[in-house]
Structures are given as C-alpha cells and as structure tokens.
Amino acid sequence: MNALVTDSSMTSAEAETQVERELLLRVDNVSLSFGGVKAITDISFDIQKGEIRAIIGPNGAGKTSMLNVINGFYHPQEGTITWQGKVRRKMKPYEAASQGIARTFQNVALFKGMTTLDNIMSGRSLKMHKNFFWQLLWRGPAEQEEIEHRRKVEDIIDFLEIQAIRKTPVGRLPYGLQKRVELGRALAMEPELLLLDEPMAGMNLEEKEDMSRFILDVNQEFGTTIALIEHDMGVVMDLSDRVVVLDYGKKIADGPPEEVQANQAVIDAYLGVSH
Amino acid sequence: MFYREAGQFKTSYKADQALMPILQDRVGLIAILGVAFIVIPAFANDFFLTSIMIPFLVFSLAAIGLNVLTGFCGQLSLGTGAFMGVGAYAAYKLTTIFPDANVIVMVLLSGVFSAAIGAVFGLPSLRIKGLYLAVTTLAAQFFLEWCFIRIPWLYNNNASGAIEVPHREMFGIVVSGAEATPIVRYFIVLCITAGIAFLMANVLRGRIGRSWMMIRDMDIAAELMGIRPLQTKLMAFAVSSYICGVAGAMMVFFWLNAAEPSSYSIALSFQILFMVILGGLGSLGGSFMGAAFIWILPVFLKFIPGTLGFDVAAETVEHVTFMIVGALIIFFLIVEPHGFARLWQIGKQKLRVWPFPY
Questions:
Q1: Is B178 among the domain residues?
Q2: Strands A225-229 and A193-197: what pairing?
Q3: Which of A47, A69, A201, B196 could form a disulfide with A25 if both were Cys (CB 3.0 to 4.6 A apart)?
Q4: For the segment B148-206, what is each residue's pLDDT rounded down to a tens digit?
Q5: Nearest CA of chain A to the CA of B211: how many Å?
Q6: Which residues of chain B neighbour A178 with C-beta distances below 8 Å?
C-alpha cells in the first residue's frame, strides 16, 4: 500500500506530457486457453508508437502469456492482433521477429555456450544474408558483412557499458550482467517493439536503477516502443506512459500510472478483498 | 609466460575476429601443418602412414562432421556410420559409372548424396530432441545398413557383397586401388581433411555457425530472434552428413581398399560419437584430439609390451589395451566432462598466467 501511495506524486509530471500517438499494435478481444485453463479472457488494449507500456498484475495473471501471444509463440483462440495497421494472421515466432518484435525473457534465455559478443551478434542474424558458400570462404563478402554488423554491435556494447565482458562466455556472468546482455541482444535486432519480461527481477536497487536508465534511453534515443512486465511498482510507475493491469486473465484497468494506482479494482487485486 | 597475448593489440574488427587472433596460436598451427605436410611424409614409414595417420585423419574428419551436428547444433545422432557408408557406396557407384572422372572429385561429390539422405533423416528433429532423436537416427543406421546388404546394385552385384576400390590414376599417379602408395593416399586424405576443417572453421564463426549454436543453447529464444528451426537443423544435418559422407568415402578409397556393410555398422557410429564426446563437443580441435585418443592410443599401447621385452600373447595385449583405453575414457570424462578441448583451454589459461598465477 505504501509503495503505491508514495509513487503517485512522482509520476504526475510525466502524465501531462502524454500525447495522442500513432498505434503500433492493437489487441482486440483476445482469448487464450490451454485445454480447460483460461489464461487470457477477452483482453483488448493497444500500444502506441514510441511509448513505454507496462503490463502488470499479480502472479498468474496472464502477463507472460500476453507477450507470448504478441510475439507469435502462442496462438489465441479468439480475437485479432493488429500490427502497424494490418490485422495479423496466425504466425510463427520467427515471422514476428522479422516484422520487428524482439523480447527478453523472465528467466534469462541467453545462449550459454557463446560469448557476450556472439550473443549480441546473434541478434543481427535476421539482417545478415550472405549465403553458405560465402560463409565457407569467409574472405570477401561474408567478412565484410560480419565487420559491418560488428560495428553496430559494438555501439550497443558501448551503450550498455559491457565492454569488459565482450569475450566472456555468458554462462560465467553474474545475473545482473546477463540481463543486460539479454537486453543488448534484443536491441541488436533494432526492433520496432521491444517486449521486456521482468527486466529487473532479482536485481538489487543499483542494478534496477541502471536498467531503468537503459530502458528510458532506449526509448528516447532509439525511439523504440517498449512493452514491459514488471513487479516493482515504483519502477513501473516511474517508467511507463500507460499501464494495463491484468488479473486472472482479465483486464481490470488501463490508463496512465496514477489513474491505475487509484483504481479500486487494482488495489483489490494486489491487496486482496474479503469475500 | 610463453603463451601470453599482452602487447598484441588489434586495431580493426577484422583482426579481432580472425580465426586465430593470438600470435602463438598461429605459430602453433603453422608448426602442426609443417609437421603434417613435411616432417611426417619425409620420415614416416608405410606402417605409420597406413595404420596410424590415414585412419586418424579419416576419423578426425568424421568426428568434425558429427561435431557440427551434435556439438554445434545440439542434435544427437547415432547414424554417423550409416552416413559414412552412404558416402562410400555413392563414391563407389560414381567412380564405376564414370570411370574416367577424377576419383577425388567423385569422393567429394559423394558427400552430396550423404547430405541429402542425412537431411531426410533429420526431419524428425523439428519435433523430437535429445535421446529420442538419437533413437530415430538409429533407425537411419539400421535402414541404411540393410540397404547396403540387400540392394546388390549398390555394390555392382559383386559376389562377395563388398565394394572393392578400382584402380584410378590422376596425372599419371595411382591414387586409389591396391597399387596406390601410402604417401599419395596420405597427402590426399590430409589435404581433404585440412581443407574441410578450414572451411568449417569459417562457417562456424559466421552467421550460420551462430544460428546452429543458438538452436543448441536455447531453441525457443533462437526462434523468437528469427531463426527458422527446421531450416537451420536440416542444414546442420546436411552439412554434417556431407562431411561424414566424404570421410566414409575416404575410408574405403584411401585406407581400407575394400569395405563391407559391416564396416559401417553401429559400432562405427559409436566410435565417432566417443571421439566427439571425449574430444569436446563444439570444438574443431577437440575432434582431432578425440580421434587421436581413440585411434592412435590403442595402436601404441599394443606396442609397449613388445618394446619392453615382455613375451605376452597377442590376445592378452589386445584385451589389456581395451581395458586401459576404457579406464582412461572414464578417467578423462570424470576429470573433465567437457573433453580434451576444455582441458586444452584450461591449460592455455594456466600458461597465460604462469609462473605467477595470482
């Protein structure tokens, strides 16, 4: 309760800068169930271009399922997803990736056997096209392409301040850095929409502050639209432009942070009510 | 102290992502190539070439093939022996159908057939993983072995049921068949193995190699980053089978001279798999080390009693060798489950800080 109250004063300034923006993604009446379990029930919301959109809710509310629907990993039984003005057909995750949707994972999903550099380079896979025979030769086009993308990757490494761990296998890195590398890997895809699934889970205060700064910088400098799942309410209220709240697979609130904070349904969902 | 990259600055990404960015590594590689191309041919006798070096190189290549699939793409396969067999039979058919064509080209071409068959048997990999996939590749092993026995067309209706390598010449030098000299065979095998190893090193550090490793380490994340799982896995199967096929063809053309279906049995699959596991999954150098351990060590062990002057029966030596090698495999896997490649890496790290480890 305290957290919710104290934050309301800090976020009121940001709400005033809200402007009506172009829609990037719209989710209409989406329902998803696994057998008899309804993970998501009739949810609609939208993500505007250039905003930071938070999705919050208690555990098991369907937040991660929602992200999985957006990037094509789950296929909803009902409802439509409109991406950049076009209704999207059922698609595979790699197709969503090629349309510009990148994400990070709740439990770090880095490529453990590869170095930081290779992990971030792997984010460039979709943008590299030299075929197998050039790769065999290496000299010439394949090498040129590799160097070209290495430059971009080095920019990201500089941006995230992880130069020192460039050649370290990611399995050896501490958790906070792994999360940062994962963010770098998603950034390397130069996405239109970046889905962050609990980017600050398990971090200490300092690491959270760093990560928040990176998220804001990504949003402001690269203009990347971000959809964010996070449990730390202070962070959510500070970072996000608009918040959608889920509970038991249903949407219970949607709006700017301070509005959501005052919403009785949200407070009930988080604190519980006597039935 | 001797192995230290301090002072070796890179001023371009090109230099930084070279195959061997460290000078000592480059010198080491040149030394190894020098030994392989100059010293061994100059001093080795026929026994050393035919019984040690040629099989070692053939097995190394097969281990590289399997390593591409299992070590880099994470798909466990027990069909290596059969894919090698496909290469051998394909090369045999090609060279008997086109007797005037260059036999080395035919050997390299035979891998294409093996690649096609490997890709077909790789199809289940989209749905099944790990040991279950290994079982489906086992089906490939048994089915193909059956083909080698039951389809007489494959061995030109030979009464013995075996394939016998015909006499072939290139620029007036006998390169295959019983008359080919060990030194010629050695050079051919060495060039093909070194060439393919070099090309694979290129592929593995580029986009395609990375996409294989992405699938290996975290297939879901790879897919969400735009990697198409089926295409990528099938490509790994095809490339791996191509290399295994070439190795299989070299095995009969430049080493054994004749081969029966039983040469490409499940035992060969396991032998190659052990080389890969012992050498180090996901390491090209490890493939060579694993092949050396499994093939060369027993040969040397067999000579020890004789040179020490003990009079031991040949069978006893054979059995003792089996026991020693088996015990060593267990020992090394307990010491370092990631194989010789990891041991070598640890060794290099130790060398880097020696003599002041703190």
A1: yes
A2: parallel
A3: A47
A4: 998 889 888 888 888 888 888 888 888 888 888 889 999 999 999 999 999 999 999 99
A5: 7
A6: none
| Total domains, chain B | 1
**Do the domain assignments include residue B19?**
no
Are the beta carbons of A122 and B235 separated by less than 8 Å? no
**pLDDT for B79-126, tens place per residue?**
999 999 999 999 999 999 998 888 999 999 999 999 999 999 999 888
pLDDT (0 to 100) of residue B108: 95
CATH of domain A2-100+191-271: 3.40.50.300
From A92, A109, A125, residue closest to B220, measured CB to CB: A109
Exposure string over A20-48, b if 16+ CB within 10 A, otherwise e? eeeebbbbeebbbeeeeebbbbebebbbb
Please name the helix (run of DSSP H) or strand (run of DSSP E) that holds residue A39, with its range, or none: strand A37-48
Cβ(A54)–Cβ(A7) below 8 Å: no
Burial of B308 from C-beta contacts in 10 A (0-12 / 13-18 / 19+): exposed
**Which residues in chain B touch residue A92, judged by CB atoms under 8 angstroms apart?**
223
Model ipTM value? 0.86
Q: Cα–Cα distance between A173 and A177 in angstroms, integer?
A: 6
pLDDT confidence of residue B178 = 80
Question: Of A111, A127, A163, which to mutate for an interface test with B (greatest number of B Cβ within 10 Å)?
Answer: A111
Nearest to B224 among A73, A146, A150 (CB): A73
Q: Shortest Cα distance from B65 to chain A (angstroms)?
A: 15
Question: B214 vs A154: CB contact, 8 Å cut-off?
Answer: no
Query: Which residue from A271, A239, A268 is spatially nearest to A256, judged by alpha carbons?
Result: A239
Q: Chain B contacts of A126, Cβ < 8 Å?
A: 225-226
Q: Provide, as residue numbers in chain B, all residues whose Cβ is less than 8 Å from the Cβ of A102.
A: 224-225
Chain A residue with minimal CA distance to B228? A94
In Å, how far are A226, A248, B260, B274, B302 from A251, measured between CA atoms?
Answer: 19, 8, 68, 55, 75
* CATH number of the domain that residue B199 is part of: 1.10.3470
With respect to residue B145, please indicate whether it lies within any of the assigned structural domains. yes
Per-residue pLDDT tens over the stretch A113-171: 899 999 999 999 888 888 889 988 888 888 999 999 999 999 999 999 999 999 899 99
CA-based nearest distance A143→chain B, Å: 8
In this structure, which amino acid lies at residue B27?
V
> Is residue A191 a contact partner of residue A49, using CB atoms and an 8 Å limit?
no
The answer to whether residue B3 is domain-embedded is no
Distance between CA atoms of residues A88 and A90, nearest Å: 7
- Domain of residue B263 covers 48-353
Q: Does the beta carbon of B11 lie under 8 angstroms from any beta carbon of chain A? A: no
